[in-house]
């Protein structure tokens, strides 16, 4: 295969495919909770439905890697996008009773899609361009946050089922055509990286590897906060009549995109543990949740929360995963990184599953206060392990 540059026409087509694919989720993440609430579903049920997306994504990710090591990426992608298209149309024409299994199916599709795209980037880019290409791909997955929530709220407020169906069909067709013509390698990709059995077996190493344990717990707690905001913010704002969820999510997405692009070269890549940066990001996330808990008394100042959360989303995950790529033992790095990635998936899904039940038991305000305590707990964990984490590079 001819090696491509990160800004080549081939790579730009893949970035476009990522934007189109994740645009659907940016719309559905906002509109599905609103529709479900209007049909009488409780916060716990909504959280279960929304959380099933990342949960199935986590469970299917290892199998996606195995399938790609046996079959060509192009063939799998074409079938995958057909399933994706059917899924989107069914969201528009079925009722809330079907949302749980459709959301789970969408998560499985996303697991395969993201694995194909990431392994394709590794295969098609030279070593010196790989980091920049992966950064641009990640950026492409976040661009839909700039317009998806606003589009979802427009569809919701318009209340036209035919318009909703038309948008889903348009996204389905354009994504499938772009994927059908995508310059993906036809040959098998990778070597299977890790299996589900490997991932389960590696959980025992969490207790033996303090570095991995601390990073995974921090990511689990932080992503739980991110998942709660993503799932319940539109409902919370609609019920309180404060703020506009579209503006909030667009501002948060803008912060993430700008930070990831403009400051991408400033993400630490020296293998050192940066306590101040990581602790600061966790405080930012905690402050964002705390501000949301006081939404009714803050008024327009609640949008400061979007900036706080955006900073944490932009930098926390890449900082931790880059650090781990240096300090984890090379012989088991793929499996252990897979376990760390699963902690993000599990945390994000828990933000819907468990925070929904909490909101139903107490209130949205109380739930976001609890999220702030999660961020503070992660902050304390980082400070308590400062010395141990700082010496991990030398020990590895």
Task: List the main descriptive attributes of the protein structure presented here.
Growth Hormone, Chain: A; 2 domains; globular; 0% strand; 81% helix; 396 residues
- Broad structural category: mainly alpha
Distance between the termini: 35 Å
Sheet with the most strands? Answer: none
CATH superfamily of the largest domain: MFS general substrate transporter like domains
How would you spell out the order of helices and strands? HHHHHHHHHHHHHHHHH
The CATH first-level class of the largest domain comes to Mainly Alpha
Kindly give the count of domains: 2
Describe the structure.
The protein has 396 residues and is mainly alpha-helical. It folds into two domains: 1-193, MFS general substrate transporter like domains (Growth Hormone, Chain: A, Up-down Bundle); 194-396, Growth Hormone, Chain: A. It is built from 17 helices and no strands. The chain has helices at 9-38, 43-68, 73-93, 99-124, 127-142, 148-158, 161-180, 196-208, 210-240, 245-262, 275-293, 295-298, 303-327, 333-361, 364-384, 386-390, 392-395. The mean pLDDT is 86. It is found in: Cell membrane.
């Amino acid at each position: 295969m001819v090696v491509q540059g990160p800004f080549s026409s081939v790579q730009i087509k893949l970035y476009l495919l990522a934007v189109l694919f994740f645009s659907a989720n940016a719309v559905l993440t906002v509109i599905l909770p609103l529709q479900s609430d209007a049909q009488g579903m409780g916060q716990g049920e909504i959280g279960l439905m929304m959380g099933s997306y990342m949960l199935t994504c986590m469970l299917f990710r290892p199998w996606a890697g195995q399938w790609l090591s046996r079959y060509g990426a192009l063939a799998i992608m074409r079938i995958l996008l057909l399933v994706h298209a059917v899924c989107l149309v069914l969201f528009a024409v079925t009722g809330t009773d079907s949302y749980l299994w459709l959301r789970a199916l969408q998560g499985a599709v996303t697991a395969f899609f993201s694995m194909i795209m990431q392994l394709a980037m590794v295969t098609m880019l030279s070593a010196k361009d790989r980091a920049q290409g992966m950064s641009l791909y990640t950026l492409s997955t976040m661009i839909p946050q700039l317009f998806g929530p606003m589009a979802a709220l427009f569809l919701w407020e318009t209340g036209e089922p035919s318009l909703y169906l038309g948008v889903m069909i348009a996204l389905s067709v354009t994504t499938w055509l772009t994927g059908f013509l995508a310059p993906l390698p036809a040959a098998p990709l990778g070597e299977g990286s890790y299996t589900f059995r490997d991932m389960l077996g590696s959980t025992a190493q969490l207790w033996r590897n303090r570095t991995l344990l601390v990073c995974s717990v921090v990511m689990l707690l932080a992503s739980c906060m991110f998942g709660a905001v993503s799932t319940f913010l539109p409902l919370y704002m609609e019920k309180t009549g404060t703020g506009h969820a579209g503006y909030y999510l667009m501002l948060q997405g803008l912060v993430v995109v700008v930070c990831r692009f403009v400051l991408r070269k400033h993400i630490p890549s020296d293998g050192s543990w940066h306590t101040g940066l990581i602790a600061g990001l966790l405080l930012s996330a905690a402050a964002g949740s705390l501000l949301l808990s006081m939404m009714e008394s803050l008024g327009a100042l609640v949008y400061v929360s979007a900036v706080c959360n955006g900073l944490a989303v932009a930098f926390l995950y890449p900082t931790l995963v880059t650090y781990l790529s240096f300090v984890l033992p090379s012989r088991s790095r793929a499996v252990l990184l897979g376990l760390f990635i699963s902690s993000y998936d599990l945390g994000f899904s828990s933000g819907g599953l468990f925070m929904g039940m909490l909101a139903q038991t107490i209130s949205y305000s109380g739930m976001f206060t609890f999220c702030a305590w999660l961020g503070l707990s992660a902050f304390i964990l980082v400070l308590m392990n400062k010395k141990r984490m700082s010496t991990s590079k030398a020990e590895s």
